[in-house]
Structures are given as structure tokens and as C-alpha cells.
């Protein structure tokens, strides 16, 4: 009975198998002719008219994301990615980008970098908001607290890992972050959102977009937020709460079929609690002072775009930017003016040329203290630049070569040349292989030339760090390869590997032998870093998207002969995680409910000693009506608190990131 | 039971054949499932792009304000529909000047009234001159990818050049229909005279 039963069972199974396989196979053959790649309308609707016209309608995977065809390690964070994560500030949004290393130091300070060398004063990443450089020549890095935008109006954040110096210039050494807001045409109507919770004590955004004429659109917006103190490792409050008011506008006007204009501006002011450890003349040569620092600023930008023909476009842009910071240990007023010209045109069928000219002038006025001083305390710096790049199609649809160089002149090191060569090979419609060799430099900052820093813990003058007027540019020669593949419609993979060869990296050299000595900034570190970045996005169902990223980084740095700096080698090798991993799920549960979850692992930082951590972020949103959204967001849900970084150079406190839960309502009509 | 175990590979008695068969069945099921996901009625890529263009036209073209503001904005398709359900998905939940969008399909020209945009399918190729002359001066944006459409008096014609979609706009026809096309579109289109 049992045996015969099994025979029948197997017999049936065999039949069932054969039938199913045949049905599926014949259906597949029958459909092969008519089954086209399905690009969700939401994806295509995001594109501008120009981009839609650029979609190759014969190939399946030549997806209109033009960046996916770039011969560089590029990731794009879309408005949808940002919105579905529920984040309330740019650094938290950047945590969603594969390959970026984002660590919060205190409530209003972050250390953000790509491909190593992370620090509060990280200096190898260029950051722009709508074409305006927000990287400060003060320390060649970014004050992340004042880089604030209305997140609902962000169109996308483009992140290039690796050098982008040929197009963007000095300091785009290990990455470029480009935050791009929507055209005023796409932000019409009234948007009101607000919320609050444990760490985000309260925040509100108001934006109103209006159509002025058929071709002119304006939006005005205001934003306020107030964030709570983080905690110290002994569970006491860190005294680093802050708030910020921010207002702005953007006007987009297509004056004729050839000309379009953009005018935009921002103004902001904020107050930030902080505790500083400053040096004193009496033991223990350190005392803590608490303060409330003021930060404020504003900017105004105009851009003219002239279309000679569909393949010849000229852009002229000018902006003015002012930033003001005031604290007991340091104050800075900075005014920057910048003008940029860019022209892109086709030369014959096979060549796309892009060239540009730029001029920037920046003036700083610094308020000194015993702790931090700049000599001179006033500086005006000018920067002249030019670049040209040629994209040559060697085999149509198959092989493309991009060569170009930036030429810059700065007041510290004179001329700098930053060339690159990139090749992109598309062997099949679903695969792209690229490689590049590029040179980038990180030009000296004002701090590296002018600073006189007296750290806490020693009487002022004993271990002072002095700037060096002969400090030279840090140099990088980078070799990258990448592979992108879309094996099936629902899955995209992106792999990158790189080898970076650095020279003249900054060291801080003791002037005298012995343990207590003043020191001076110098260029006596060299070595290489290498790593890989893997990211995958999958959409198994229309309602479910998955994104994940893994980043591996390794550094091997050495001191030149004659260098006595025993610290920098350790800090540069130890301040970025060797391994990072995240996976994110964006799920539409139906019934107008969305559920987003992210798990992130960050490896230990050997220096400053930070243990590894795992974070879990969740967002649950309900859209009872098309114009209304109610969401609850939890961040860092797995632990009460954990440190992510530690202060460097300036004696602020080492805050720990706490669990955060907040609710928010968005009303758009 | 042995068969189920074959899947998980813990069945000591299962021979290679059973296991193979089990995997074959599983793959078939997975393949079938994957096919179902793929089989969303995707039109040709060019029509996916054209569908999104039709939706964009609703924003880039200004109609004389004759219709009540609560009436839906209608995109009509005359003749064979190359879009499948894609156009419907494109406009789902969208609004133009606070008006919801709907798609209507027509077999005959006479039925196609009260549209804001009318896409004329390839099946109407032989009747296109007739259709256009019957609509002359009406505030309906006529769109098609029939050859010579713009020169015959159609307002926007799609054509393909180097695998990319191009537009040809007949400004006289647009003007006669009392419509206004944004410079954003004009900038990237060819103008028929």
C-alpha cells in the first residue's frame, strides 16, 4: 500500500512538473516577443522634459537615470528615498547613501566622509547645495549644522564617491555631495508639516508655491526646529541642544524658449548650546565653559541657462554667501562671492564637450581667543579655475572615453592641475563596466596656514599647534573600477573597487624633542587606501523595495623620514570603520499605510576608540487622504545611547546618540 | 513527505532524481511567480515614455478656462490604444490645477468629445486629415505619432530619431485652438511651419 502510494505520488509529481514546465516555457516563448521592461511611471514622471527626450527607447535597461551611465561611483538619493525614511536633517539622510560614513559627534556636529579620513574637520569631501559650494576654506570641510534645506523640496542628493576634481575642482578628493532642490514649478501649493518627539523636540516646515505667470513660478518657505541635548557616557545631559530658524525662496522663470532663469536665496539663524574644555595657566590646565553659540547666514544665487540648440547649453551662475559663527573660543564672519560659466555642446556625432570658467573670492574676519587664534585674523582669498572635458564615443552604445582636466590657481599653492581619464564599456544592455584614473588635490585651508591652537590640558604655549605658511596641497592619484548590472528587471547591483595613492598628507610635527613640545602643521604622511563598495536595490514586488549597501575600507599610511608625528598615522588609519553595512526595506502595506525599516551596522573605530554599533530605524505612515500624512518615526531603537565619534582638536564633549521617537503630520494642498 | 524533505536536503533516502525533480518543480513555481510579476502589461518602452509625455502636456499646456474647475481633465485615446494600462497608472492619483485626470478611449472620432488632450492612434492613419479638419479651432490638444501629423494640422507629433523621442509642434494649429504651450516644451521641440 505504502509503496504503491508512493509510486502514484511520484508519477503524479512527474506529470505535474512536466506540464508546469511546458506551460511556463511555452508562455515564456510566446511572450518573449512582447514582454517589455516595465519602468514604473513614478520613475519616468520624475524626469524633466529634457531627460525624457534622452531616454533610449530601444533598449530595455538604458534606464533614464543618466547617472547610472556615469563612469564613476555614483549614488542618487531620491525625494522618495528621503521622504520614506522620515529623516529630519541632511546628515541623517546621508546615512542612507551607500559608501558614506556618517557619525554624529554631538547634537549639532557631525563627521561625514567617504573612503576614509573621517573627522569633524574632514577635508576631502566637497558639498554643494544647488550649485553653491558649502565647503569652507576655513578648515577645508563642512559645518553640517548650518547646511539645512526643506527636505520636502529636495529633488535628489547625488553622491559621487572618489575624486570629482576634474569637474568640481580642488577638494573633491574622496567624494562630492550635490544636494539639488526642485524647481519652483514642481513645488506648487501649500505644504505644512510639523511634529516632535524625544530628541526632535519640535519642528515645522511651511512652504507656499505660486504660479506667477505661465512660465514663472515662485516658492517661499520657512522652517524651524529645536533639538534636545544628547547625553554623555555618564548619562548626564550633554548641554548641546540647539534650534534654528530658516527662511528662503526660489523663483524659476522660463523667459523664452531659449532662456531660463533661477533666483534663490536663504537666510537662517540658530543658537547652539556647547561645552568647551579650554586651557588655563593653573593646574589642571583645563576648565569647562558652557555657552550658547550663535550661527547665522544667508545666500543669494542667480542662474541663467541659455539653450543655443538641444545639444548646446550655456549656464552662467553667480552667488553670494555669508556665514557668521560666534562662540567664546572662536568667531568667524565670512563672505563669499562666486561666478561660474559652463558650456556643454556636441562636437560632431561622437563628442560631447563641456568646459567652464570660475572665479571665487572669499573674505574671513576671525575673532581670536587664547584657545584658538588665526594669524592674520583677516584674509581675502581668490580662486581662478577653468576646466574642459571631452566625452568621446568610440563605439556607439558600447564604449565611451572621458578625458578632461581642471586648472586652478589658489593663493596658497598657486597652480594645480587635476586631470582624469575614464572609460565606460557597455558589453550588453544590462551591464556596465567602467574604470578611471584621476588626480585630485586638497588645497591648504586657512587653518593649516594661520592657526595657533592651544589645546586644553597644558598651559597655553606648551603644546601649541602652529599653522605653516609652507603647507602644501595633499595629493591623490586614484584608480577605480566599477561594474553595474541589472540581471533581472527587479534587481540592480553596483560594485566598485578602488586603490588610492596619497602623498603629502597633513601631519602635525613636534618642533622640539621630548613629550611636551609645540608642533607645526606639515605634509609628511603618505600611503594608500583601498576598498570596495557594493550596493543592491531590489523590487521583488511593486509594493516592496529593498536597498542595501556594504562598504569596506582599509588604509596603510606611513611617515616620511624626518617625521616625528606619532599620532596622525593612527588617527587617519583609525577614524573610519573598516566595515559598514545597511539594509533598508520600503514597504507599501496597502490601505494607505507605508512601513519603512533600516538596519545599519558600523564597525569599530580603532581611533578614537568607538565600539561597533547596530542601529534600527523604523517609520510607519498612514495617508488617510491624498493630501494628508501622519507618521511615527523611531531612530536608533536598539540601544538607549551609543557614541559614534569623538571630538578632535577642539575640546567639546563626546556626546552619545540617543534613541529618538517622533511623530509628524504633513499636509499638502 | 520525502518529497518535501528533498527540498530541504535532509532526506537520507531521497535519490538524486527525486531531489532534481523537487528542484525542477520549485524553479518552475518561482519562474511562474516571477513571470506573473513581470507580466504587468508593459507597453513598448517608447509608449511608456510617450504616456508620461501626455501626462506632462497637461502641465505644460494652458487651456482657455471654459470648463468648470471641478470637471475632470480628460486624456482621450482615439483608435487602437498602444499604452495598455500604463497611461492609467501614470495619471492615477495625479491632479492638474486641482482637477483629477481620467483616461477615455474612443473608437470613433464623433464620440471623442470633451477631451482636453486627444491622442490619435496609428489605426486612424488614413483618416487623420479628416479627423483634424473636424477639430480645427477647438481647444483640444491633438497628439499623435502618425507620420506627417504636425504638417497635416496636428498640434504635437512624436517621432523617433536615433532611438530617442522627438516632438514636432505645429504652432499655428496650437494658436487656432486657443492653447498656449510652455516654452519648456517649445525649447526642446521642432516647430512645423
How would you explain this protein's 3D organization?
The complex is a heterodimer of chains A (669) and B (193). Chain A is mainly β and 669 residues long. Chain A has 8 helices and 34 strands. Chain A is globular, with a radius of gyration of 27 Å. Chain A starts with a helix and ends with a strand. The N terminus of chain A is likely disordered. With 193 residues, chain B is α/β, with parallel strands linked by helices. Chain B has 2 domains: 39 residues; 148 residues, Rossmann fold. Chain B contains 7 helices and 10 strands. An 8-stranded mixed beta sheet of chain B has the order 3-4-2-5-6-7-8-10. In chain B, strands 1-9 form a two-stranded antiparallel ribbon. Chain B is elongated. At the A-B interface, helix 1, helix 2 and helix 3 of A face helix 2, helix 3, helix 4, strand 8 and helix 7 of B.
List keywords for this structure.
heterodimer, A: 669 residues, mainly beta, 22-stranded antiparallel beta barrel, five-stranded mixed beta sheet, 8 helices, globular, B: 193 residues, alpha/beta, Rossmann fold, 2 domains, eight-stranded mixed beta sheet, two-stranded antiparallel ribbon
How many beta-strand elements of chain A? 34
Q: Major sheet of chain A: size, sense and barrel closure?
A: 22 strands, antiparallel, barrel
Cα(first) to Cα(last) distance of chain B is 76 Å
Report the largest inter-chain contact: A-B, 51 and 48 residues
Shape of chain B: elongated
The CATH architecture designation of the largest domain in chain B is 3-Layer(aba) Sandwich
How many domain regions of chain B?
A: 2
Strands of chain B, count: 10
Low-confidence spans of chain B: pLDDT under 50, at least 5 residues?
A: 1-12, 32-40
Stretches of chain A where pLDDT is under 50 for at least 5 consecutive residues are 1-11, 24-35, 58-65
Amino acid at each position: 500500500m505504502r509503496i504503491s502510494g508512493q509510486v502514484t505520488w511520484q508519477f503524479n509529481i512527474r506529470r505535474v512538473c512536466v506540464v508546469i514546465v511546458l506551460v511556463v516555457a511555452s508562455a515564456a516563448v510566446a511572450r518573449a516577443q512582447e514582454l517589455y521592461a516595465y519602468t514604473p511611471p513614478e520613475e519616468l514622471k520624475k524626469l524633466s522634459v529634457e531627460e525624457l527626450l534622452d531616454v533610449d527607447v530601444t533598449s530595455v535597461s538604458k534606464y533614464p537615470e543618466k547617472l547610472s551611465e556615469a563612469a564613476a561611483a555614483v549614488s542618487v538619493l531620491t525625494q522618495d528615498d528621503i521622504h520614506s525614511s522620515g529623516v529630519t536633517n541632511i546628515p541623517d539622510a546621508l546615512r542612507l547613501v551607500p559608501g558614506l560614513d556618517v557619525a554624529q559627534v554631538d547634537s549639532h556636529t557631525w563627521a561625514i566622509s567617504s573612503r576614509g579620513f573621517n573627522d569633524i574637520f574632514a577635508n576631502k569631501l566637497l558639498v554643494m547645495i544647488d550649485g553653491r559650494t558649502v565647503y569652507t576654506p576655513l578648515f577645508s570641510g563642512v559645518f553640517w549644522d548650518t547646511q539645512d534645506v526643506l527636505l520636502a523640496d529636495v529633488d535628489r542628493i547625488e553622491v559621487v564617491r572618489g575624486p570629482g576634481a576634474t569637474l568640481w575642482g580642488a577638494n573633491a578628493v574622496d567624494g562630492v555631495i550635490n544636494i539639488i532642490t526642485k524647481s519652483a514649478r514642481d513645488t506648487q501649493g501649500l505644504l505644512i508639516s510639523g511634529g516632535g518627539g524625544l530628541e526632535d523636540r519640535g519642528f515645522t516646515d511651511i512652504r507656499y508655491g505660486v504660479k506667477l505667470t505661465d512660465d514663472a513660478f515662485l516658492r517661499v518657505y520657512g522652517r524651524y526646529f529645536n533639538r534636545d541635548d544628547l547625553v554623555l557616557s555618564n548619562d548626564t545631559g550633554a548641554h548641546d541642544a540647539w534650534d534654528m530658524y530658516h527662511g528662503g525662496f526660489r523663483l524659476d522663470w522660463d523667459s523664452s524658449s531659449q532662456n531660463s532663469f533661477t533666483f534663490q536665496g536663504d537666510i537662517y539663524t540658530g543658537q547652539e548650546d556647547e561645552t568647551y574644555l579650554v586651557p588655563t595657566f593653573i593646574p589642571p590646565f583645563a576648565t569647562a565653559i558652557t555657552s550658547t553659540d550663535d550661527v547665522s547666514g544667508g545666500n543669494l544665487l542667480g542662474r541663467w541657462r541659455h539653450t543655443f540648440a538641444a545639444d548646446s547649453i550655456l549656464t552662467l551662475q553667480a552667488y553670494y554667501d555669508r556665514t557668521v559663527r560666534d562662540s567664546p573660543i572662536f568667531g568667524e564672519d565670512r563672505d563669499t562671492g562666486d561666478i561660474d560659466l559652463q558650456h556643454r555642446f556636441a562636437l560632431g556625432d561622437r563628442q560631447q564637450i563641456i568646459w567652464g570658467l570660475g572665479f571665487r573670492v572669499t573674505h574671513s574676519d576671525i575673532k581670536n581667543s587664547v584657545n584658538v587664534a588665526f594669524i592674520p585674523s583677516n584674509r581675502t582669498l581668490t580662486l581662478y579655475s577653468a576646466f574642459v572635458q571631452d566625452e568621446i564615443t568610440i563605439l556607439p552604445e558600447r564604449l565611451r572615453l572621458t578625458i578632461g582636466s581642471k586648472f586652478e590657481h589658489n593663493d596658497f599653492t598657486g597652480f594645480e592641475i587635476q586631470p582624469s581619464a575614464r572609460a565606460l564599456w557597455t558589453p550588453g544592455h544590462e551591464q556596465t563596466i567602467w574604470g578611471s584614473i584621476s588626480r585630485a588635490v586638497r588645497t591648504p585651508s586657512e587653518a593649516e596656514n594661520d592657526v595657533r591652537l592651544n589645546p586644553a590640558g597644558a598651559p597655553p604655549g606648551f603644546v601649541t599647534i602652529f599653522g605653516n605658511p609652507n603647507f602644501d596641497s595633499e595629493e591623490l592619484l586614484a584608480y577605480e573600477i566599477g561594474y553595474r548590472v541589472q540581471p533581472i528587471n527587479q534587481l540592480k547591483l553596483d560594485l566598485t573597487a578602488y586603490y588610492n595613492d596619497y602623498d603629502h598628507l597633513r601631519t602635525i610635527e613636534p618642533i622640539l624633542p621630548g613629550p611636551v613640545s609645540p608642533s607645526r602643521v606639515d605634509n609628511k604622511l603618505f600611503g594608500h587606501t583601498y576598498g570596495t563598495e557594493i550596493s543592491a536595490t531590489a523590487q521583488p514586488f511593486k509594493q516592496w523595495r529593498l536597498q542595501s549597501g556594504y562598504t569596506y575600507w582599509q588604509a596603510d599610511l606611513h611617515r616620511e623620514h624626518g617625521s616625528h608625528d606619532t599620532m596622525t598615522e593612527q588617527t587617519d588609519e583609525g577614524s573610519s570603520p573598516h566595515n559598514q553595512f545597511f539594509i533598508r526595506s520600503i514597504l507599501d502595506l496597502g490601505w494607505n499605510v507605508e512601513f519603512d525599516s533600516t538596519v545599519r551596522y558600523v564597525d569599530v573605530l580603532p581611533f578614537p576608540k568607538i565600539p561597533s554599533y547596530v542601529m534600527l530605524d523604523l517609520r510607519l505612515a498612514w495617508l488617510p487622504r491624498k493630501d494628508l500624512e501622519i507618521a511615527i518615526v523611531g531612530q536608533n531603537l536598539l540601544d538607549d545611547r551609543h557614541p559614534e565619534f569623538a571630538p578632535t582638536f577642539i575640546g567639546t564633549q563626546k556626546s552619545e546618540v540617543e534613541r529618538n521617537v517622533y511623530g509628524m503630520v504633513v499636509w499638502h494642498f | 513527505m520525502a518529497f518535501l524533505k528533498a527540498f530541504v536536503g535532509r532526506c537520507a533516502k531521497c535519490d538524486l532524481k527525486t531531489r532534481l525533480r523537487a528542484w525542477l518543480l520549485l524553479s518552475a513555481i518561482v519562474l511562474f511567480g516571477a513571470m506573473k510579476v513581470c507580466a504587468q502589461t508593459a507597453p513598448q518602452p517608447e509608449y511608456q515614455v510617450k504616456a508620461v509625455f501626455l501626462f506632462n502636456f497637461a502641465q505644460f499646456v494652458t487651456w482657455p478656462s471654459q470648463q468648470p474647475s471641478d470637471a475632470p481633465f480628460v486624456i482621450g485615446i482615439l483608435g487602437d490604444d498602444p499604452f495598455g494600462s500604463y497611461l492609467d497608472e501614470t495619471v492615477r492619483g495625479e491632479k492638474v490645477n486641482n482637477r483629477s485626470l481620467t483616461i477615455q478611449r474612443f473608437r470613433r472620432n464623433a464620440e471623442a468629445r470633451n477631451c482636453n488632450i486627444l491622442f490619435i492612434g496609428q489605426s486612424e492613419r488614413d483618416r487623420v486629415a479628416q479627423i483634424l479638419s473636424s477639430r480645427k479651432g477647438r481647444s483640444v490638444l491633438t497628439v499623435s505619432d502618425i507620420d506627417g501629423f504636425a504638417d497635416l494640422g496636428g498640434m504635437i507629433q512624436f517621432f523617433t530619431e536615433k532611438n530617442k523621442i522627438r516632438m514636432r509642434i505645429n504652432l499655428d494649429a496650437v494658436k487656432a485652438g486657443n492653447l498656449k504651450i510652455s516654452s519648456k516644451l517649445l525649447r526642446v521641440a521642432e516647430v512645423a511651419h
